[in-house]
Amino acid sequence: MVEFYIADSNDIKKGRTTDIYFMRTVEVLKKDGKDKVHVDMEITTNKLPYGFSWGILAGVNEVIALLKDHKLDLYIMREGTLFKPRDDYGVRMPIGIISGPYGEFAIYETPLLGLLCQASGVATYSAHIRFNASDKVLLSFGARRMHPAITPLIDYAAYIAGFDGISAVISAEKLGVKPTGTMPHALIIIYGDQKKAWKAFDKYVDEDVPRIALIDTFSDEKTEALLAAEALGSRLYGVRLDTPGSRRGDIGEVIREVRWELDIRGYKNVKIFLSGGVDLDEVKRLRDAPVDGFGIGTSVSNARTIDFALDIVAKEGKPIAKRGKYSGIKNVYRCPRCYSFKVVTWDKATDKKIKCDKCGSDMERLLIKVIEDGKIIIKPPKPSETREYVLKQLEDIRRLGWSD
Ligand SMILES: [Zn+2]
Fold first, then answer.
1. N or C, which end of the chain has less CB nearby within 10 Å?
2. Is domain 134-301 annotated with CATH 3.40.190.10?
3. Class of the CATH domain delimited by 9-121+305-399
4. Dist. CA 334 → ligand 1 center (Å)
5. Positions of CATH 3.20.20.70 in the chain
6. pLDDT interval class at 350 (50, 70, 90)
7. Of 77, 57, 56, whose CA–CA distance to 130 is shortest?
């Protein structure tokens, strides 16, 4: 049978992507009347990929969609929150707590972690690119490297983490933004002549689409950049270098040369974009190069996931945990001024006020109740609001002198 190998929303909501051992566990517990045992389970991670010291949480909205309508409470950090695996005192930080009868949500461990691990992995890597790219434009071009079923997820995670645009049509629709793109080599090859292709693009494509000419198809980037500038004149918004790996050499030097040649001929307004194999390291290398933006694909869509785990920390309200995990219900506080984190034991009935040990400011509580007895009790933020929140945090840690 020829078909797409995907689980649809209905499969996910019913828990059909779970690991079989959870189903067997629930079956056993039910037969002995233990499926109603109340547990608190914590979501934590031991470390972040790429040696990063901080991450960006994403996937919260999908977790809410998964767990709503079940008899449980969910406490979790706000979507887009900058977190660390451990607080300033070395205690592993819960990024969320599920509280309810174990049998009610046991089977959702697999999909829940998958939703958080992948979205947070893409958001974290994207945020580190944003953090290192100063004010350069960042475009997510990675749809083609992953299964199309998750295209909206990848673009969403990159966008909330500070990317400026995304290329896939469906993602743009869901985010309420305009899709961004230039032109493929195929267009130029079919015309067989760069100038004819660029001019045809200019003739037929909507006026509000910036004219960005692809300039590495047949000749040297410097030559084609000037050809494009001559062909489109003041209508040329920018040029894109998608230089093949075999011709790259020192791409920063190529970009500087293109900039120079455009400038001395009066094309100072023409922007330069780079795509093709761009990753975090390349963005760092080119931080001071005269490149105005990057189209980034594989490194973002294939970003390593964050290994979140879900573990019992209390049973019937009493602290208990497996070896290697800290028992008891906890909350996490963050200082809005110096970004110190502190994990504290927590009585969910009371909201402690805590002062930062380092600077004395009032700390903010990060675990917020979002589902109560199956009902959503918050208004989920729009992607643009989450993006603003992420950018604000990145600005704060930049001011504090943090690195990756
Ligand atoms: Zn502080």
1. N
2. no
3. alpha beta
4. 8
5. 134-301
6. confident
7. 56
